[in-house]
Structure formats: C-alpha cells, structure tokens
Amino acid sequence: MNENTAGKKALSLVLLVLGVVLLALALWMDFTKTYIVIDMGVKVALRGLFLVLGALLILAGMYFFPTVMHHRTIINILFLFPLLFTFAVTVIIPMCVGIFYSFTDWNGVAYSKVVGFENYSAMFKDPAFMWSLLITVLFVIVNMVMVNLVAFLLALLCTTKLKGVGFFRAAYFLPNLIGGIVLGYIWQFIFSNVLTSIMNSPHSALASTNTAFIAIIVVYIWQYAGYIMLIYINGLATVPKDVLEAAQIDGADAMKTLFQIKIPMIAATFTICTFLTLTSAFKQFDVNLALTNGVGTVRGFMGQRLSNGTQMIALNIYNTAFARDQFGYAQAKAILFFIILACVSLVQVRISNKREVEM
Amino acid sequence: MKKLLALLLALVMVVALAACGVTTENAAAPAASSSEEKTEAAPAAGGITLFNGKIEIADALNHAAEVYEAATGKHVEVNSVGGGVDLQSELKQRYQAGNMPDIFTCEGTPDFSNWTDNEMLVVDLSDQPWVSDTEAEFVYEPTGAVIGFPYTTEAIGLAYNKSILDAAGIDPASITGPESMKAAFEKIDGMKDELGITAVIGWCANAKELYWSTGNHMFCNYLDAGLARNDSTYFDLMMDEGKLDLDRFTPFAEMVGMFNQYSDPALLVSGNYDLQVSGFASGKYAFVTQGSWIGASLTGQYKELYDAAGNFECGMIPYAFIEGIDTILTNPPSHWAVYKNGNVAEAEEFLNWLAGPDGQQIMVQEAGLNSPFKSCTVVANDPFAPTVADFTARGKTSSWHFLEQPANMAEDYTGAIFQDYAMGTINTEEFIQDMVDTIPTAVGK
C-alpha cells in the first residue's frame, strides 16, 4: 500500500514536471514567434499541441497525486473553467491592466515610465477635472429628483382611466428609443435654430454655461423619464386591489391612498428607479457630447478661467484620453470614477432596502 | 464509477478544447506547409491600406487606387474617414488591434509624436525621389528624417466673393490694412439690400462646432500672417514664454471684433460649418473666414447653390490687421506617414507614383488639391486655385504653425474665448486679457 502511494507520487511528479516543461516551451515559442508546424495528415502547429498537452499532463499529475480527497475539487474547477476563463478575460484581466496603466504615462500606443501616484495627485489639482466632478454631482442630484418626480407623475397619469392612455405611454417612452447622439443633435437644432427664432434671442441657450447646463438637464429628463415611468407603471400595477379597496372602505381619499398605501407599497420600485437614474446620470456622455461637447466658460474657479463649463466627468475622461493623448491620466480618472460609482450605488441600495415594506 | 465518468467527461471537454486550439493554429499559419518551417508573422500578402483623413477626396483617391492597380497590378485599399472623427484615436485603436494601415494621416507634430516618441513606428522617407521635388514634407526634428509625405497644400486667407466686391465697387487689392478693411466693410454693409446679401462676412465663433476655425485658423494669423516662411517669432514667444505680443495682438483682436460686428447674427454664435460655407456658396456673404478647402465644397457638395449664385469668382486677401500684412498662409494640413511594420516597399512605391505625373493628374484635377510638388504642371479646376497660385508665385505666403501648438489648445482653451467675445459677454480689452491669462496654461508655461 505504502509502495503504491510512493509510486503514484513519483508518477504524478513526473507528469507535473513534463507538463510544466511543455507549457514553458509553448510560451517560449509564442514569445519568440517560432511557429513549428508538422504535417500528420492534418497540419498541426507544435505550439498549440504543446500547450494543450502540457495542460493535460499537469491536470493528470494533480489527479494522481496521492490521497483522493482533492479529486472532487479538481473536477469542480474543470467544470467551472469555461466560466472562470471568460470572466477573467472579459472582466478581471482588463480591470487589472487598467489599474496598472493608471500608474503609467501611457499615451495610447506605449508607455515610457511608471509614474506612481502622480496621475492621482494631478487630478485633484486640475481645476477642469474638479469642475467636471462638481457639475456631475450637481447633475446627478438634480436629475435623480427631477426624473423620478416627472416619471412618477407621468406614471400616475398613465394609470388613470384617461382616454388613449396606451398612446400616451408609448409617446412618453419613445424618446428613450432614440439614441443619445441623434437626440443631442435634434435638440441642438431646437435650441440653436428653433428656440432662438421663437424667443428672438441672438444666441442659443447652449452658448452660455448656465443655460447650457439647464438644457442638458431638460434633454436628459425628456429622454429618460419615459423609461422610468414604465417601471413605475409596472410597480403601481402590482399594488394589490384588496388593499386599495380596504382603504377606500375606510374612507381614505385619493391623496391619502397615494401617500399611505401606494408609495409605501412600491418602495422597491423607488429603489430600482433611483438606482437606475443615479448610475445613468453619473455616466451621462452621449447627450453631453452631441449637445455642447462640454463647451462653456467658467470664470474664477480655483483661480482659473475654464472652458469646459458643461463637461461631465465621463466626457472629461474621454477627452483626456482621446483628445489629449493622456491615456494613463484618463485611466486614473476612470478608476476614481469607478470607485465613486461603486460606493454611491452600494450606499444607495443599502438605504433604500430598509424602507421596503414586507408583505 | 461515478467518479470515473466525471473524469472521462472532463477529459472529453479538455480534448475538445484542444481540438479547437489545433484548428485555429492551423488556420493562423497558412503559409507554412512543409514540416519544421520557421516563419515570421507574415504581413497580409500583397496590397496596402491607405488611411485617409480627408473625406472630401475619398472618391478621387479610390479612382487613383484603381488606376494604380490597372497600371501596376498592385492593390491599394483606401479607407476614408472624416467629419469630426478623431483620426489619432481611431489609429490607436487600430494599432492596439494589430490592424494598422500601411499609410496613415498625421496632422503636425503632436500627431506624429504618437508614433515617434516612445518608439519609431514610422519609416524614414528621406531617400525617396519626391523629397527633392517639394518643400512641404514633414521633417522629424531630432534626426532631420523626412517622415511625412505632403499630398496637398492649403491656404488660409480672408476669402471673398468677387462678384459682390465688383458690384460694390471695391478692389480687393486695395484692402491692405485695418482702415481700408473697415472702410470696405462699412461700404458693403451700407449696400446690403442693394447687393442682396445677408451680411458682410460669414464668420462663426461657435466654440463647439468651429473651435478649430477660430482657435486654430483665425488665431494663427496673429502668429504667422505677414512673416517670412521660416519666421516663427510669435509662435516661439507663445510656446517658450507663454506670452502674446500685445502690439500685434491688439489690432488682431480689433479685427476679430469687427468680424463679430459685421457677421450674420444667426451664424455668429449658434451656426455651424455647413451653414457658413453654404451661405457663402449661395452668395449671402461677401467674405468668409474659411480657407481654400471650401473650394472643393463649392464645386461639390454645394454645387447647386453655387450654380444658382452664378458660379462667382473667388479670391483671397491677407488678414491685414496691421497695415502692410500682405501674405496668406499656406501649408499642408496633414501628411501621410508610412507604418514601419507594414508593407513598406509597396507603400513607398505607391507614394512615388502619386507624386509623379499620373498621380498628380488625379490628385489635382479630381481631388481639387493644390500640388505641393514643383514638377507638377497640372492646374486644379478649383475656385481658389488661381489666387493661391498667384500668391505662391509672388512669394507672398507665410507658413502656419498651429499644428505644432499643443493638441486641443483651441478646443479646450481659446475657442471658448472667441465665442464669449462673439456673444458680447466680454469686450475687446477683456478678450485680450483672457487670452493673455489663458495662453500660459494652454501651452503649459
């Protein structure tokens, strides 16, 4: 029995070593671009063959390693492998590479040196970026309130027994089906050509920072309220009829029913909707790009004159990377953006969950 | 038994994966057929790709590629992009994807530095025959190597509609300084109804749409107008010390202020390029602040408007914001570089053919480009070609330097100041002050 274990151990070790050697060989071929192809009826490239054989040998080696306790684990991992592999390739590896690049002076083609936390410290001294951060937060707060308010009112309207409710639902939802860029250009035309001639003003609202910022908010609400409205309609439809009936019998008026019954009953819907508007408003990009491209004058912010008065953070990151060629710096900003977004979302979900009514 | 089955299944899966691996390997190495053959990662066999950033000349380039293929049997694939596409970011994406074109467009030093700074990724073209035939090639300063092929030159000047000036009785040659320019503007402004025009000048300072027109093209007149071709005094002053020469900048600012005053209010802040050029094409403006490149649009995109306006003659005068400025600015707007790891031999061969008589025939006549090559005798059928040729022949051209200023200086800094000035939220003194305050940040001084 003992001898058997020893034999198995030796065998597994040989297999493991052989596997590692083959893998290393395959990697070496890949790095040096030595493509050796052998013809065995079908043409087989040795690099791939080595890679696969190496992996198989290592697996076999691990499998034969004494005590059978770990067999199940190996098999579990094998079955999970496709999923883990996909997850690593699409999420984990890019994320790690991204974090790495944020510590370099990468210009989109190559990087020449690792700069440590320079990118991170630079962004807090950059008035343009701080301004973007500030107005993005402002934009998010205003929109979270306005979009939900407008959407909820629309939802209430569209759940009454009005004539043509189906039409209104579709009409309010329609803007959401138009892509942001197209929508931005449509509204640019409205602000620059239509509104200027109706109101007889010499300049479009998009030309000065304050009005342009309001313009972006209006367009965003116009685009997004219909979508959120649909979710509220869905939520309102799930309020049980018996509860409403009971309230009616007890003599609750419409207002009371709304505030005491309907709103608490659809607290979960509020969670979803605030979460959706919060994250999507943070990530606002396409309407911003098409409507103003961030242009707008701001005077005396952190002692500087800024030209990016309406530039949200996502657009700021994009421009830093693609227009100014500072990919490393942009990557650092993106990491900060990611952290903010993750924190805000977590906190928001946690708070909202507490309010939900158990049925 | 169960375990055995599980093991078997796992093995089957791994083998299946392996099979996939082998077949892809097989497909990826089609060139190697005999046993034990060592090959480099082979470039796509035969043919080259040209990445053209000037969508206006796409048709002509495609035709040139066809003619070239008929003559030599070598294929040239032309990829044209334009209209607000950021060329360099597109190129970087292609580079990351390992899909670089063999010839690609670069505008000025900041663009080229993407491909030269960390690693020299473009080919030294100094030994090419066309180099001695032109003065417009792009030279990599540190080594003096020629790395950019000039495919056209363009001119920046104050473009005018000759028939309107004739009708108003103004000789463009008489506009030689700020006073004469002001007098001409006033005269035309007083005759607007008579001449049937909307405004004296089509000048648009929309910072979102035309920051490049204001912050680059207009601003570079302050930097370069009236100077000798190798004179970069004001550009150096700006780049090295972050300073503007107020003796020169103040009259420039006053000229811009006059443009603000006499431009079409509907165009000035809320307009766009399309509105500006189509307005000029249809004879609404006596002057327009765009360069020679709009010639191709007049005879192409806006042909109907231009025909309806009587195919008027066009010309250019210098932006004479100081008495005595007598040059327009001419330079190649961008160059073509050859990618080092691409099909270099065929790319060089194609560029040589393009610089020769057959290539120039198409580039000048069909694409409407001004040839940068001395040996070229073909004259473009372009509304602005005669005036550009005239200034060139008289030696009254300056070179422009805005391509060497920091990328995005116009978009991020100066464009918005021009817009504020046009809107009237700041006056001339504040415009000058804002520029003086902003330039050091913009150039990093």
The tally of beta strands of chain A, per DSSP, is 4
User: What's the Cα radius of gyration of chain B?
Assistant: 26 Å
Any idea how many domains of chain B? 2
In CATH terms, what is the fold-level topology of the largest domain in chain B?
A: D-Maltodextrin-Binding Protein, domain 2
By DSSP (H or I, 4+ residues per run), the number of helices of chain A equals: 14
- Helix vs. strand class of chain A: mainly alpha
Into how many domains do the coordinates of chain A divide? Answer: 2
Oligomer: heterodimer
Strand fraction band of chain A?
under 5%
Helical coverage of chain A, percent range: over 70%
Rg result of chain A: 30 Å
Share of helical residues of chain B: 40-55%
What CATH architecture label of the largest domain in chain A applies?
A: Orthogonal Bundle
Distance between the termini of chain B: 77 Å
Topology:
The complex is a heterodimer of chains A (359) and B (445).
Chain A lengths: L1 H31 L4 E4 L1 E4 H19 L6 H31 L16 H7 L2 H32 L6 H9 L6 H19 L10 H29 L3 H9 L4 H12 L1 H16 L3 H6 L6 E4 L2 E3 L6 H11 L3 H29 L4
Antiparallel strand pairs in A: 1-2, 3-4
Helix pairs in contact in A: 1-2, 4-14, 5-6, 5-8, 5-11, 6-8, 8-11, 11-14, 13-14
Chain B lengths: L1 H27 L19 E5 L5 H15 L3 E5 L6 H10 L6 E4 L1 H9 L21 E3 L4 E6 L3 E3 L1 E4 H7 L9 H13 L1 H4 L3 E4 L8 H14 L8 H9 L4 H17 L2 H4 L4 H9 L3 E4 L5 H6 L3 H6 L5 E4 L10 E4 L3 E4 L5 H12 L1 H9 L19 H9 L3 E2 L10 H15 L4 H16 L2
Parallel strand pairs in B: 1-2, 1-3, 8-9, 11-13
Antiparallel strand pairs in B: 3-12, 4-5, 5-12, 6-11, 7-9, 7-10
Helix pairs in contact in B: 6-10, 8-18, 10-19, 18-19
Describe the structure.
The complex is a heterodimer of chains A (359) and B (445). Chain A contains 14 helices and 4 strands. Chain A has 2 domains: 2-118, no CATH class; 120-355, Orthogonal Bundle (MetI-like fold), CATH 1.10.3720. In chain A, helix 4 crosses helix 14, helix 5 (127-158) packs antiparallel against helix 6 and helix 5 packs parallel to helix 8. Chain A has 359 residues and is mainly α. In chain A, strands 1-2 form a two-stranded antiparallel ribbon. A two-stranded antiparallel sheet of chain A has the order 3-4. Chain A is extended and about 90 Å long. Helices cover 72% and strands 4% of the residues of chain A. The N and C termini of chain A lie far apart (62 Å). Chain B is α/β, with parallel strands linked by helices and 445 residues long. Chain B folds into 2 domains: 48-150 and 333-371, Periplasmic binding protein-like II (D-Maltodextrin-Binding Protein, domain 2, 3-Layer(aba) Sandwich); 155-330 and 399-443, Periplasmic binding protein-like II (D-Maltodextrin-Binding Protein, domain 2). In chain B, 47% of the residues lie in helices and 12% in strands. Chain B has helices at residues 2-28, 58-72, 87-96, 108-116, 162-168, 178-190, 192-195, 211-224, 233-241, 246-262, 265-268, 273-281, 294-299, 303-308, 344-355, 357-365, 385-393, 409-423, 428-443; strands spanning 48-52, 76-80, 103-106, 138-140, 145-150, 154-156, 158-161, 199-202, 285-288, 314-317, 328-331, 335-338, 397-398. Chain B has a 6-stranded mixed beta sheet, with helices on both faces. Chain B has a 4-stranded mixed beta sheet with strand order 8-9-7-10. Chain B has a 3-stranded mixed beta sheet with strand order 6-11-13. In chain B, strand 1, helix 2 and strand 2 form a beta-alpha-beta unit. In chain B, helix 6 packs parallel to helix 10. The chains are: A mainly alpha (359), B alpha/beta (445). Chains A and B meet through strand 1, strand 2, helix 2, helix 3 and helix 7 of A and helix 1, helix 3, helix 4, helix 11 and helix 18 of B.
